[in-house]
Amino acid sequence: MRGLFTVFHKELRENLRDRKAVFNSVLLGPILFPIIFIGLMWFSTSKEMERAEQTLEVPVVGAEHAPNLVRFLEQQGMVVQEAPDNPEELVRSQTAPIVLRIPEAFGEEWTSGRPAVVELIADPSRRESRTPMLRLQSLLNAYAAQIGTMRLQLRGISPNAATPLLVKDVDLSTPQSRGLLLMIFLPYMLMITAFTGGMHVAIDSTAGEKERKSLEPLLINPVPRWQIMSGKMLATIVFGFASLALTLVSFRLALPYMPTGSLGIDLTLRAATVGGILLVVGPVAVLAAAMLTMLATFAKSFREAQSYMSLVILIPMIPSIMFMANPVKPEAWMMPIPMFSQNLLIGEFIRGETVPLEWIGMSIAGTLAIGLVLAAFAATLFNRPRVVFSGS
Amino acid sequence: MIVVKNLHKSFGKVNAVRGISFEARDGEITGLLGPNGAGKTTTLRMLYSLLPPDEGEIRIDGLDPTHDAMTIKRTLGVVPDGRGLYTRLTARENIRYYGELHGMSKKDIRARTDELAATLDMADFIDRRTEGFSQGQRVKVAIARAMVHQPQTVLLDEPSNGLDVMSTRALRRYILSLKAGGHSVVLSTHIMQEVAALCDRIVIIAQGEIAADGTAQQLLERSRCGTLEDAFVALIGSDEGLLA
Fold this sequence. Notes:
With 392 residues, chain A is mainly alpha-helical. Chain A has 17 helices and 4 strands.
């Protein structure tokens, strides 16, 4: 086993001296992911707030047909703008997010007591029209409710008669569990990090060694080839795991700066949560190292290996995206599935739920088992002359 | 002492080595001479047990590389054509890595490295990273790395490739000192002068077969030529791949 650790130490030392490796493995994930994540969240929440607090400015076509309604809207703070000739075009070209049109027949319908039609012209598939649309809708509903109540009272009927049902929301979510809605990307980012963290080392220590022609003399040393390969994989695991741990720490440090205070969301990652996540995602670093090393060993050159790697990155994405698209209730049988169980468990940790210990055990064991099987296969690859001499 | 009998190796339809036999005795330098692609490197790879032969027999100090690979590797020092140094490690760290892989103690490695650095005149660059080393410096590090565990048998693949005159002279002096120390040295080359200057026995390989085998004197007599170069061309029947 001494050969294994000799190889491991040398790979660590050599790769720590490589600025590219350190940057790719250890810094990119921990710096880039929190910045992207927090930056995006900050941008979207602040935009959302801005839209909600902005004065609502709406072009109104045919304002003269409903002076009372228009007055009501203005009293509520809406600014009524000049009516354009072609409101649909205005919305389509995104000059105005929404336009209100009051048809000529409004007055006649109103006085005869039939529902008077007003048209809200908008394109809900454009995200920026959603907020003004909802705001105007609620203003119009308020006006309708107010007039409806008055009409009933005039006829001597209690307005309650028109409200047979009152729906009351009983919210069981906690500030922590609401945090999960924002953190849905975290498991995905962590899983990617476990892969990207070890990637450079995996390539450098196999395809890179082949390219520099140092693999052949290395294999002439009296060390079993599986030990040489395992030493290299161990270094890859360490880099992947370090990258993972740093990413978690940097999320923990950065999350308090998220603009969530007003939303009633608790995004603190407690030390225990961080520990739990590391414990559960750690085995993914082993699985990742085995996969990366295996693929990189088949490649003739650094460049060829890199092109395989972009495919490997897809692997951790599949379960995460499946889970994002179709959230499922965690159950025991799902726990041995690598990368899927991590998604579920991280979710539960962040929600602050107590997770059965055997679930954690099954997840770790399942992922490690598959990782070790792949690693055992990878360890035999240097026994194939075709793998060793390809490209030379 | 290396004994090779009737070695065969093919890759798919390519017969790289077709029945090579020779001996390399202790205290002698044996040269494998042949044009590029003659099968020299494939033969060496079978000697240092990276490739199993399809047929034939190899004995290095009585051991068979296919069965006693680990034991044989302890007695082998190999300088491959590509050198293959780690550029982010210093020369000393490159040597130490191989010492550690041979299971040597830290103290032994240090002593042996200092000794080799003195013999090979490496003091100026022993603690520098090998990135940007000259060909001469690189071959010295590769030799020191291969010799750190004091192997009895030394295999050198095209050792003077890309070296300038001074480095070549230093290399030859060192190889001759190995011979004086009783080592069995095998070097492969396509350069005539190298063989003439160093080798006690010359094995001429062409197209995977032995074209001739013997001392320089014997080869000259057999081919009835005045110079080794003419003898070489006469024996392999072409001068293809000989222009160094």
